[in-house]
Every structure is written in C-alpha cells, then in structure tokens.
Design a protein that fits this description.
Length: about 160
C-alpha cells in the first residue's frame, strides 16, 4: 500500500508578491554527525546559490543564519510578481543536490518550517530572533561576532534601522 504524501500546509498563493516569509531548513537527523552547515565551503556555496535564486524570483533576503544542523532565512518579495515559493524550493533543490554530491549522506529534511510575517508583526523582532540564535546557543556574545549570517539585496543594519 502506498502512503499518500502530506502536502505543505500553505498554498503557493501565500508566497507571491510583496510578502515576507521566515523559513527554518533542517538537516536530516541521521546526517547531523557527518558535517556542519557552518563549514566555510558550505556557507559560501549555499550563499551563492541563495543569491542567484532570490534574484531570479525577484526577492531579497533581509537575514540568513547558518547553524550546525539548520538554517534560518527570511525571504521578502520586492514586487507583485515576486515568488518566494520558487526561491525556497529552488534553493533547497540546488543545495540538496550539492550536499548529496559533496557531503556523504548530506540531506535536508523533506519539508521546512515557515511563517508568513504578517503586516502587524515586527520584522525587526523576527530578524533579531534569527540573529540571536548563535548567542542563545553560546557560540558568540553578540550577533555581530557571528560569521555565518548575512543578508542579500540589502544590509541587515538598514533593515534593523527601518530603512528597508
């Protein structure tokens, strides 16, 4: 008997236009001992891939943060035909292929956690939560010290200061 695959909880229409979505992508549990997403080669490669897919999808990334076994990303659409779903699925596909080709057994978990950031929510609070992840884990004393974070298409400081 074939088990029906669970569909993602939100329809793709929620990921189109000038919206912002926070994502958490996790490495499969059985892979965690094999490597860390904080390896400089992985961070560099994945950041380049993320940059190319968000440009294609007409989006920016106000913040991303690599942890050893997961990654946080906020993707924001910049116009009415921005497609955040396209950006995240292409990113996961391309980085997943790179992992399987370059890191023995390296795989993402099948789905991801996401949260559409509503107009009434504070984008700054969402970004600070992501930036403070390494601080909460005891890796650094302040988020500014953490080397495996960044933004694409904008500056983190500009977003935090309300310029973007």
């Amino acid at each position: 008997m074939r088990i029906k695959e669970k569909r993602h909880r939100l329809s793709k229409e929620f990921y189109k236009g000038e919206v912002s979505v926070a994502f958490t992508l996790c490495v499969k549990r059985d892979v965690i001992a094999g490597f860390s997403l904080r390896e400089p080669e992985i961070v560099s490669t994945f950041t380049n891939i993320l940059s190319s897919v968000v440009v294609e999808a007409k989006c920016i990334v106000p913040v991303y943060c690599f942890m050893s076994d997961h990654q946080h990303i906020i993707i924001a659409g910049t116009c009415s035909d921005s497609d955040i779903w396209e950006a995240i699925t292409k990113y996961k596909q391309k980085t997943g292929f790179w992992l399987s080709s370059n890191k023995s057994g390296g795989k993402w978990q099948k789905d991801f956690y996401d949260h559409v950031i509503r107009k009434h929510e504070d984008m700054t609070a969402q970004i600070m939560y992501i930036l403070d992840n390494p601080v909460r884990k005891g890796l650094v004393l302040s988020w500014q010290e953490y080397p495996y974070k960044g933004a694409i298409g904008c500056k983190i400081e500009d977003v935090l200061n309300g310029i973007i």
